[in-house]
User: Which sequence fits this backbone?
């Protein structure tokens, strides 16, 4: 039976079988040393000259070969003990080697942190890159974080519900990725920019407390810490006020940091709140970096930003045809603050209307945002009117929301976290690609799979699509 490398210390004096990869190999002629690695850690192995068969076998072996090794777990002599290193006080005396698979010379070293290797190479051979300890740690900690969140929310009576990937455009302010329909030629699904409408419809369905670790796709111009697809912790709750959503999320963030990142220090609890206006005046942006000591990599300064304007005028870069018209700053489905509701319903002083939006920031990054939603049809209808939708469009594009609201939809609100970004910050990584198993490049390419790629003429024909070759 296989013993995991981290458990070898419990088998001193016994013969065990381990399986894994050759991390490092040092041939000293009479003795051959190998560090073996599995998902639980590393151990130094040695072939002594008296094990003639093993000595023959080990001469052939190279780094990254996959082996099963039988051996005896020995205590290291006092002078060779490495304190504070896993298995620093033991060594495996190899008696037999079974080669499970050979490996070509790796394209790059997987034992370093990888910062010295070009990202193109790392992403082209991502399966190999993921073997390095730093990437193993990031991906495993990402799992721990997702699990912690799931357990926490489960205890709070939330349920995780999957929502469709093939869906219809929902306005989050970015361009949609679209998928052609074969059965209904000339029509398209949109990939979700967020589960916003579905989660609100789940509130109409009486689910009351929803969450999802959800994939979102936005066809935006690429930037350092953006990806065409990214992950949100998305949630929605019924019968809540802004303070309830903020309280729950604050508690979750504090517990998550305390349990999973005990070395980190949260600067201020409860998290401070700042209005959008004050943040712009004081910090010049709406994601203030309020850290008292910016050199301390373990300091976490969370901050809520509230009282955002609901509407703003569009500028040319959005769309030259609608320049100067009203658009939403965050989310068209939000409720304005109570004091401004009447004003909004009358369509007055639109620039002054504040929304119930709350953003959560960490060390100068926006890590989440949400709001209390309009849950009455008239309110949503009015917002859509203000941002330029004609009544017929509203019926066509948002009829399902308005109809749902008319069937008895409770007041509700929610939030979504940028899950990748939060992990990036907690892991002190410079960009989100370091915490995503298979990210795309800054230019939106998957170098390993060579995607995007062309499809066969047959596939295009089935979809009724012709490619304008001049526009390639
Ligand atoms: N759907 C919003 C977003 O993706 C988050 C929310 O308001 O819950 O930013």
Assistant:
């Amino acid at each position: 039976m296989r013993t995991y490398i981290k458990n070898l210390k419990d088998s001193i004096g016994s013969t065990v079988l381990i399986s894994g990869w050759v991390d490092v190999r040092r041939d000293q002629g009479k003795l051959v040393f190998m560090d073996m690695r599995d998902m639980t850690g590393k151990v130094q192995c040695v072939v002594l000259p008296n094990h003639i068969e093993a000595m023959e076998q080990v001469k052939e072996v190279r780094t990254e070969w996959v082996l099963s090794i039988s051996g005896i777990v020995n205590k290291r002599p006092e002078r060779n003990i490495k304190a504070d290193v896993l298995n620093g006080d033991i060594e495996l005396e190899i008696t037999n080697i079974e080669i499970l698979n050979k490996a070509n010379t790796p394209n790059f070293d997987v034992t370093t942190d990888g910062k010295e290797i070009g990202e193109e190479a790392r992403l082209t051979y991502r399966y190999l890159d993921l073997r390095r300890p730093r990437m193993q740690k990031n991906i495993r900690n990402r799992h721990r974080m997702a699990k912690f969140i799931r357990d926490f929310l489960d205890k709070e009576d939330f349920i995780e519900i999957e929502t469709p990937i093939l869906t219809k455009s929902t306005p989050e302010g970015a361009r949609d990725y679209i998928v052609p329909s074969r059965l209904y030629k000339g029509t398209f699904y949109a990939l979700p920019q967020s589960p916003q409408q579905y989660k609100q419809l789940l509130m109409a369905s009486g689910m009351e407390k929803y969450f999802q670790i959800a994939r979102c796709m936005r066809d935006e111009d690429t930037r350092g810490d953006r990806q065409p697809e990214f992950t949100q912790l998305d949630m929605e709750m019924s019968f809540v006020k802004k303070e309830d959503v903020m309280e729950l999320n604050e508690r979750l963030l504090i517990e998550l940091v305390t349990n999973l990142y005990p070395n980190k220090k949260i600067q201020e609890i409860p998290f401070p709140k700042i209005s959008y206006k004050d943040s712009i005046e004081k910090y010049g942006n709406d994601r203030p970096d309020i850290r008292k000591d910016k050199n301390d990599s373990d300091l976490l300064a969370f901050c809520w930003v509230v009282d955002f304007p609901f509407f703003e005028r569009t500028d040319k870069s959005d769309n030259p045809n609608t320049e100067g018209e009203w658009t939403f700053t965050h989310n068209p489905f939000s409720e304005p603050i109570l004091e401004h509701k009447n004003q909004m319903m009358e369509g007055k002083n639109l620039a002054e209307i504040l929304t119930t939006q709350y953003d959560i920031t960490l060390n100068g990054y926006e890590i989440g945002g949400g709001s209390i939603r309009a849950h009455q049809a008239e309110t949503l209808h009015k917002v859509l009117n203000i941002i330029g939708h004609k009544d017929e469009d509203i019926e066509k594009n948002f009829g399902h929301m308005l109809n749902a609201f008319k069937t008895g939809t409770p007041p509700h609100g929610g939030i979504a976290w940028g899950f990748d970004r939060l992990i990036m910050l907690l892991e002190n990584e410079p960009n989100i690609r370091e915490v995503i198993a298979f990210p795309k490049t800054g230019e939106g390419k998957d170098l390993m799979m060579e995607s995007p790629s062309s499809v066969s003429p047959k596939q295009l024909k089935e979809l009724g699509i012709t490619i304008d070759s001049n526009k390639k």
Observations:
- The longest helix spans residues 133-155.
- The domain at 5-101 is CATH 2.40.50.140 (OB fold (Dihydrolipoamide Acetyltransferase, E2P)).
- The chain has a mean pLDDT of 95.
- Residues 172, 194, 196, 331, 369-371, 414-416 surround aspartic acid (CB under 6 Å).
